[in-house]
Amino acid sequence: MTKPLKIYSIPTCSDCNYAKRYFKENDISYTDYNCEENVQYAKEVLELTGKQIVPTIVIGDNVFIGFAENLKAISDLVR
Predict the structure, then answer these.
(1) Which residues of 1-29 are buried (b: 16+ CB within 10 A; e: fewer)?
(2) 11 phi/psi in degrees, rounded to 5
(3) What is the side-by-side order of every strand in the sheet holding 31-34?
(4) pTM for this predicted structure
(5) C-beta of residue 9 within 8 angstroms of C-beta of residue 32
(6) Do residues 53 and 65 touch, judged by C-beta distance below 8 A?
(7) Could you give the CA distance from residue 51 to residue 66 in angstroms, rounded to a whole number?
(8) CA dihedral defined by 47, 57, 66, 33, rounded to 10 degrees?
(9) Which of 33, 55, 63, 76 has most Cβ atoms within 10 angstroms of its Cβ?
């Protein structure tokens, strides 16, 4: 995969943890931005989506709000 993958998450979010587990199990590198530890990351999510919802996943120019409901589209981009 050539496009950088970013995930904005919080530790207690089950969908966030599911996404990170999926990426690890499939050897997909990603950068995790913990919105609970750094308020700037939460602001970035708001700027990207107009909402404050995690996980927000960014792959290249593609922005996804939520993981499970976007799994097919995300999988297609990272394979």
Answers:
(1) eeeebbbbbeeebeebeebbebbeeeebe
(2) -60, -30
(3) 31-34, 5-9, 56-59, 62-65
(4) 0.94
(5) yes
(6) yes
(7) 12
(8) -80
(9) 55
The residue type of 65 is: I
Name the residue with tokens 């589209």. 73
Tens digit of pLDDT for each residue in 15-58? 999 999 999 999 999 999 999 999 999 999 999 999 999 999 99
Instruction: List CB contacts of 40: < 8 A, sequence separation 6 or more.
Output: none
35 Cβ contact partners less than 8 Å away, ≥ 6 residues apart? 8, 9, 10, 41, 42, 45, 54
d(CA 66, CA 13): 10
pLDDT of residue 19: 98
